């Protein structure tokens, strides 16, 4: 016979022992230039937890906000000065209208008109289920109103949930239609920020030219660099050669999301992040800490450690390098990892050989 109580106790125990992430220091910028979906979280409310924000055409160019499956999934949200936008349709998230006398909540929707916006601050936090690092959109204020407040969702038609604004200090609850407070989480989508599709290399005796063709859903960008050969910093591949600084490139390593080993970070000795991140800056940080390995990720993060699991060993195919295709915040000519992919380097022995891995 199945002991339901024992199973419930086991599950409760599992939830409590979920590993928690370490929060990188610093404040995230209020602009998110890559496309994302907005996930809704409230771990104590399974009916809304981990579902997504959808758009529903509302006439006049407005789009109302519902929890899926109602409405259309939106994969192309961006954040402009703290305001959620869908640039393709020219709408942004605002608050206004349909004020409820019972619980003092107000509608959150998107429009091309100039209604006062909902202003958010991207903030690192740990996912309540997985313990992994995530970026949440914390409500700063309804523009023109006191700071604070929450985004909440409440029943609308046919069991759907619509999005609303719950003002700071509010204790009123509509017993018939409770507005459930939720966290909005940034989930980068496949097009973010660019996809490295092709690497073309041509080499002549006197110079080497590398061309990386970057494409995303709507744009195509060519990056060309030419340098006299041989130099210590030239590279025909889409990573930054750091052998002159005493570090060799190992490859583009998977983080926990792409590895199935159950461990957390590929490198877990130290971390930092900044708006001016480059591969040089990261490896200098790791060198200062005496670490054997270092690497960049997510454009702005730097991770260091003295070992990594064999399950995180990067591939040596050219194609594998394309996962590390996020431009560094401090130098758009360099790649600093990707979405849960780490541009991984190893410290070369002092005075010893220093050669990057060979990719083919
Ligand atoms: C979940 O919703 C309830 C009801 O609004 C709220 O009191 C609680 O703080 C929410 N929890 C989280 C983690 O947002």
Automatic annotation (TrEMBL):
Membrane topology type: Single-pass membrane protein
Signal peptide (UniProt feature, chain positions): 1-21
Subcellular location field: Membrane
Primary site of residence: membrane
Organism domain of life: Eukaryota
Domain WSC, chain residue ranges per copy: 246-348
Matching InterPro entries: DUF7909 (IPR057231), Kremen_rcpt (IPR051836), WSC_carb-bd (IPR002889)
A GO cellular component annotation in the UniProt record: plasma membrane
Keyword vocabulary terms for this entry: Glycoprotein, Membrane, Signal, Transmembrane, Transmembrane helix
One Pfam family from the record: WSC
PANTHER family tied to this protein: KREMEN PROTEIN, PROTEIN SLG1
Protein name: WSC domain-containing protein
Organism name: Cladorrhinum samala
């Amino acid at each position: 016979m199945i002991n339901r109580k024992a199973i419930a106790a086991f599950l409760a125990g599992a939830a409590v022992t979920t590993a928690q992430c370490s929060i990188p220091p610093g404040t995230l910028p209020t602009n998110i230039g890559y496309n994302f979906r907005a996930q809704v979280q409230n771990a104590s409310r399974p009916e809304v937890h981990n579902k997504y924000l959808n758009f529903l055409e509302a006439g006049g160019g407005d789009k109302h906000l519902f929890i899926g499956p109602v409405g259309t999934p939106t994969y192309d949200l961006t954040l402009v000065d703290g305001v959620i936008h869908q640039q393709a349709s020219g709408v942004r998230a605002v608050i206004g209208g349909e004020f409820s006398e019972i619980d003092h909540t107000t509608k959150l929707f998107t429009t091309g008109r100039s209604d006062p916006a909902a202003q958010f601050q991207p903030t690192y936090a740990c996912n309540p289920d997985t313990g992994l690092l995530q970026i949440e959109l914390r409500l700063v204020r309804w523009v023109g109103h006191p700071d604070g407040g929450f985004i909440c969702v409440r029943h609308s038609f046919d069991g759907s949930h619509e999005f609303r604004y719950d003002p700071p200090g509010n204790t009123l609850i509509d017993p018939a239609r409770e507005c459930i407070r939720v966290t909005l989480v940034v989930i980068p989508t496949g097009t973010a920020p660019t996809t490295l599709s092709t690497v073309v290399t041509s080499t002549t005796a006197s110079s080497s030219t590398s061309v990386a063709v970057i494409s995303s859903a709507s744009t195509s960008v060519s990056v060309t660099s030419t340098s006299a050969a041989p130099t210590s910093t030239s590279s025909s591949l889409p990573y930054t050669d750091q052998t002159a600084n005493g570090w060799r490139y190992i490859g583009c390593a998977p983080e926990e999301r792409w590895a199935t080993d159950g461990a957390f970070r590929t490198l877990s000795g130290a971390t930092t992040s900044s708006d001016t991140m480059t591969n040089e800056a990261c490896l200098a940080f790791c060198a200062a800490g005496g670490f054997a390995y270092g690497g960049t990720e997510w454009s702005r993060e730097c991770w260091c450690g003295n070992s990594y699991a064999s399950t995180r060993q990067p591939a040596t195919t050219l194609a594998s390098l394309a996962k590390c295709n996020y431009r560094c915040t401090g130098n758009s000519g360099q790649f600093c990892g990707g979405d849960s992919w780490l541009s991984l380097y190893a410290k070369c022995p002092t005075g010893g050989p220093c050669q990057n891995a060979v990719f083919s």
